[in-house]
């Protein structure tokens, strides 16, 4: 293309003078200097690339690309060798092009953009394609491609370094490090061992080797397999049955290879996982090309597909096959008879030696005082964090600094533990390629490695097991906003907007309404956009003598005729948290409250698209619900809440008789894992013997629900460890100290460990462990489920709790909602402290109710966002397993817009659905998938799947 050629010429002129090497250059090195690459922006550093012969007789040469330092003086900056794995994958194609290199290849496959977090900001980075046959590296001896292995690769790489230093003598005696990821978990320590041993006895070695760093690294096969299978199950990727069979069938000791039966279970595990990017389980896959099935670590987990948006491999494949790119890189000078590919099949397929463990090398180099860092992106299912932790534990190293959260821009970047001789760092939310998924955090990690400084932490962010400070949840309790607070003051702009919107009434109800119901009709809310459905809100008395009344908000169906659509009650938990504040305002309601706290925007995926939604604040004292009897606030409990909610429904139907006999469902989340089945049981029992009950109860659905304390606790502790949130020591102590059977409460010893666990997690949103926290106000410390996990803080961006607190305290909002008609002497809050603190009865298990309603044929669905650590998926799976229900449909991935939305298993009497990447509030974190889940629940249809996505044993 003429325009591209002109641009390339211009760039070549600019870069040739822009990047003058800051180091002395030999004649051979000058030949390797890169003038400018196709589509390259101007830079202020030098680059070199070309071939170094490692075996002249065989004609074997390895290709390198040196990117000199830009942010620090190149002449004094350390030299760092980067290796990718496979075996058979290109460090140029991955490390240099989509991870730590100076550029990113654009989607056109012909131009480059700068990587703002390139590692050459702090070091001279040397990328090497090894062994021969990988990338541009070649051999004139064909058999070399079929005789590769760990040993040969290490020695060829060492010969490369020695010969390369003759071409670049300025790097002799320079501080030298080796880094890499994946199967380079073999390459890096093996080459490090070779350099270390060859340096022995030399006073001033030319390779001034200081240490190595590996990420998501294959370290020890036995521990890698054990940890990988555990990761898959605790992250909801495979079924109970497959996990059990993997554990029973696959005995991965140091002498045995996987059996045929084990390989068969692998195949099933792959099918169950579905079309996810196993290297980054929460990111979308690349749909543009079949190249997304590439392998970066293939010798260990060959059954796992690889796909990552933005399809960077497709771009690199196109770019590195362009003749002008190869010419600029001094590559393919011998006319290799095959195109450039990111990973070489022959090298991988015919790989020879591959030792089962790198731990002996670790022990040797640790004893020698060599710096060793291991890092792990915790969203990688191929070489996962659990495997790395098991491998490092096998070294039995003394701890220097206990597990702690490290910070980047006030956010938890991951976790760190310093051992004697080794530092382990996790990177939160990153996949297999940490610098691709978390580039800024990856650069920070690299900087600290070079300085040999532990990752940064606030002074108060770490606790040891002794002594232990007070329980964290006390600091997280919401403080009531006093009546004089500015939050209660009118907002003139919002009021003016509300007045304008009020001129056009929301919508005429499509259902007959009583006079009492008409009094509850909402004309328009302040800051509300126009809508085509009716809304009602107000109070229903549940105990006239006590003056106890519950507040509701009905949002009638919009996407389907409201007169025939089902009626669905939604309940939030706490206990003590508002269904109006959470369910209606930041999850599945018709609106979202904007950041100004005075206006609303439409929710794109509201559940009233398919049903009439009824939100209820229960018990009295929650949200706008109230009692004239003060003691009611201090005597709330499960039983009273269920019966008050039932009384509400019966009385509410007198006001809205058009909903009598309508299909009726109860839904909710969190501690409503108690409310929902308990109310369902009350409705079911009261309906017994009634030929045509006014509450035509069909079933219930609960999400991230407290179901059974014993299993919830066990599952939570396992989740915390397998997701890298707590230390080995704390996990072990939790299991030993906390015996959560059905008759015992946590001991003081257990509570003490729980405090340590909270400190180790740091300032993350435990309800959504990969999302940022709200930094605007202390209100982000609210609790949605507090009775079970009171030590865990709550915070979620975009600070929706703050916005609802402001909005629902506006007098004009309360007037429009017909709320606070009695002048409640306290401000509206998302969660009530008195209700929570004085909660009375709370049965340890809901399983008996499940059994009763399953036997009665009621529809029961349980869903779980798999990024919630408060009531996590592991706890839910253990609880459901305790029901011993027969399986109708085995675990399978369900799909939404060609992406895995989560996983589903249909039991006899119960359906379990997970939502990939969602936190505690599924409709907030994955709104479209949440609505799809709701639609399928109402139709009682299992979640959608491709025909070929299921495989049975």
UniProtKB/TrEMBL annotation:
<keyword id="KW-0121">Carboxypeptidase</keyword>
<keyword id="KW-0378">Hydrolase</keyword>
<dbReference type="Pfam" id="PF00450">
    <property type="entry name" value="Peptidase_S10"/>
</dbReference>
<dbReference type="InterPro" id="IPR001563">
    <property type="entry name" value="Peptidase_S10"/>
</dbReference>
<dbReference type="GO" id="GO:0006508">
    <property type="term" value="P:proteolysis"/>
</dbReference>
<feature type="signal peptide">
    <location>
        <begin position="1"/>
        <end position="22"/>
    </location>
</feature>
<protein>
    <recommendedName>
        <fullName>Carboxypeptidase</fullName>
        <ecNumber>3.4.16.-</ecNumber>
    </recommendedName>
</protein>
<dbReference type="InterPro" id="IPR033124">
    <property type="entry name" value="Ser_caboxypep_his_AS"/>
</dbReference>
<comment type="subunit">
    <text>Carboxypeptidase II is a dimer, where each monomer is composed of two chains linked by a disulfide bond.</text>
</comment>
<keyword id="KW-0732">Signal</keyword>
<dbReference type="InterPro" id="IPR018202">
    <property type="entry name" value="Ser_caboxypep_ser_AS"/>
</dbReference>
<comment type="similarity">
    <text>Belongs to the peptidase S10 family.</text>
</comment>
<keyword id="KW-0325">Glycoprotein</keyword>
<keyword id="KW-0645">Protease</keyword>
<keyword id="KW-1015">Disulfide bond</keyword>
<dbReference type="InterPro" id="IPR029058">
    <property type="entry name" value="AB_hydrolase_fold"/>
</dbReference>
<dbReference type="GO" id="GO:0004185">
    <property type="term" value="F:serine-type carboxypeptidase activity"/>
</dbReference>
<keyword id="KW-0865">Zymogen</keyword>
<dbReference type="GO" id="GO:0005773">
    <property type="term" value="C:vacuole"/>
</dbReference>
């Amino acid at each position: 293309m003429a325009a591209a050629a002109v641009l390339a010429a211009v760039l070549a002129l600019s870069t040739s003078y822009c990047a003058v090497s800051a180091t002395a250059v030999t004649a051979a090195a000058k030949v390797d200097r890169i003038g400018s690459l196709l589509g390259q922006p101007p830079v202020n550093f030098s680059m070199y690339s070309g071939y170094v012969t490692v075996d002249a007789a065989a004609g074997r040469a390895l290709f390198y690309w040196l990117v000199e330092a830009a942010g620090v003086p190149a002449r004094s900056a350390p030299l760092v060798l980067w290796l990718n794995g496979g075996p058979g994958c290109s460090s140029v194609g991955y490390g240099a092009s989509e991870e730590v290199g100076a550029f990113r290849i654009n989607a056109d496959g012909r131009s480059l953009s700068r990587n703002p977090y390139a590692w050459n900001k702090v070091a001279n980075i040397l990328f090497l394609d090894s062994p021969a046959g990988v990338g541009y590296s070649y051999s004139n001896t064909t058999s070399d491609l079929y005789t590769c292995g760990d040993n040969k690769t290490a020695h060829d790489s060492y010969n490369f370094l020695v010969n390369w230093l003759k071409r670049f003598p300025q790097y002799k005696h320079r501080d030298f490090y080796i880094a890499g990821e994946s199967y380079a978990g073999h390459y890096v320590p093996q080459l490090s061992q070779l350099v270390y041993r060859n340096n022995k006895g030399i006073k001033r070695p030319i390779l001034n080797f200081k240490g190595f760093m590996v990420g998501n690294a294959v370290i020890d096969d036995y521990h890698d397999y054990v940890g990988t299978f555990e990761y898959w199950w605790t992250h909801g990727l495979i079924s109970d049955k497959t996990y059990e069979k993997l554990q029973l069938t696959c005995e991965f000791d140091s002498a045995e290879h996987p059996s045929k039966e084990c390989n068969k279970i692998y195949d099933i595990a792959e099918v169950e996982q579905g079309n996810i990017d196993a290297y980054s389980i929460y990111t979308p896959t690349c749909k543009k090309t079949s190249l997304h099935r590439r392998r970066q670590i293939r010798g260990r987990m060959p059954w796992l597909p690889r796909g990552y948006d933005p399809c960077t491999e497709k771009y690199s494949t196109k770019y590195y096959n362009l003749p002008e790119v190869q010419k600029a890189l001094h590559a393919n000078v011998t006319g290799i008879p095959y195109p450039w590919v990111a990973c070489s099949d022959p090298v991988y397929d015919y790989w020879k030696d591959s030792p089962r463990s790198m731990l002996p090398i670790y022990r040797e180099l640790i004893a020698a005082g060599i710096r060793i860092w291991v890092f792990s992106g915790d969203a990688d299912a191929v070489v996962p964090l659990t495997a790395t932790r098991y491998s490092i534990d096998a070294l039995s190293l003394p701890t220097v600094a206990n597990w702690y959260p490290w910070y980047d821009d006030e956010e938890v970047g991951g976790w760190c533990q310093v051992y004697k001789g080794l530092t382990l760092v996790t990177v939160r939310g990153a996949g297999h390629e940490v610098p691709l998924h978390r580039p800024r955090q990856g650069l920070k990690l690299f900087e600290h490695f070079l300085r040999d400084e532990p990752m940064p932490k606030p002074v108060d962010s770490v606790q040891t097991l002794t002594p232990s400070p007070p329980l964290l949840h006390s600091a997280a309790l919401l403080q009531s906003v006093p009546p004089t607070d500015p939050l209660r003051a009118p907002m003139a702009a919002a009021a003016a907007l509300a007045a304008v919107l009020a001129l056009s009434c929301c919508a005429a109800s499509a259902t007959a309404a009583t006079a009492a119901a008409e009094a509850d009709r909402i004309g328009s809310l302040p800051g509300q956009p126009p809508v085509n459905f009716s809304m009602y809100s107000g109070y229903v008395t549940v105990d006239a003598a006590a003056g106890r009344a519950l507040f509701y908000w009905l949002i009638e169906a919009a996407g389907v005729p409201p007169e025939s659509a089902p009626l669905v009650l939604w309940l939030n938990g706490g206990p003590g948290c508002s269904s109006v504040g959470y369910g209606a305002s930041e999850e599945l309601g018709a609106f979202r409250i904007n950041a100004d706290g005075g206006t609303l925007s439409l929710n794109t995926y509201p559940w009233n698209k398919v049903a009439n939604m009824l939100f209820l604040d229960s018990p009295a004292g929650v949200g706008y619900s109230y009692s004239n009897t003060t003691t009611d606030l201090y005597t709330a409990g499960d039983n009273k809440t269920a019966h008050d909610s039932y009384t509400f429904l019966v009385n509410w139907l007198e006001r809205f008789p058009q909903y009598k006999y309508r299909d009726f469902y109860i839904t909710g989340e969190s501690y409503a894992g108690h409310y929902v089945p308990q109310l369902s049981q009350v409705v079911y029992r009261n309906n017994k013997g009634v030929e045509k009950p006014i509450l035509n109860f069909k079933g219930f659905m609960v999400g991230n629900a407290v179901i059974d304390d014993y299993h919830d606790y066990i599952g939570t502790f396992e989740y915390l460890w397998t997701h890298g949130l707590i230390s080995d020591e704390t996990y072990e102590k939790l299991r030993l100290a906390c015996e959560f059977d059905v008759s015992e409460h946590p001991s003081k010893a257990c509570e003490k460990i729980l405090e340590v666990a909270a400190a180790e997690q740091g300032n993350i949103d435990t309800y959504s462990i990969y999302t940022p926290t709200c930094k605007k106000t202390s209100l982000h410390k609210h609790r949605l489920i507090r009775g079970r996990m009171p030590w865990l803080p709550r915070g979620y961006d975009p600070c929706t709790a703050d916005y609802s607190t402001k909005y629902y305290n506006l007098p004009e909002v309360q007037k429009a909602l017909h709320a606070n008609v009695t002048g409640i002497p306290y401000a509206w809050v998302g969660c009530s402290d008195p209700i929570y603190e004085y909660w009375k009865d709370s049965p340890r298990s809901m399983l008996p109710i499940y059994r009763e309603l399953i036997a009665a044929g009621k529809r029961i669905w349980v869903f779980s966002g798999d990024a919630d650590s408060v009531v996590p998926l592991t706890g839910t799976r253990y609880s459901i397993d305790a029901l011993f229900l027969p399986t109708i449909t085995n675990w399978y991935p369900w799909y939404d817009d060609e992406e895995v939305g989560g996983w589903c298993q249909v039991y006899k009497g119960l359906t379990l659905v997970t939502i990939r990447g969602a936190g505690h509030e599924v409709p907030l974190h994955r709104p479209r998938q949440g609505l799809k889940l709701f639609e399928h629940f109402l139709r009682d249809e299992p979640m959608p799947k491709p025909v070929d996505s299921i495989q049975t044993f």
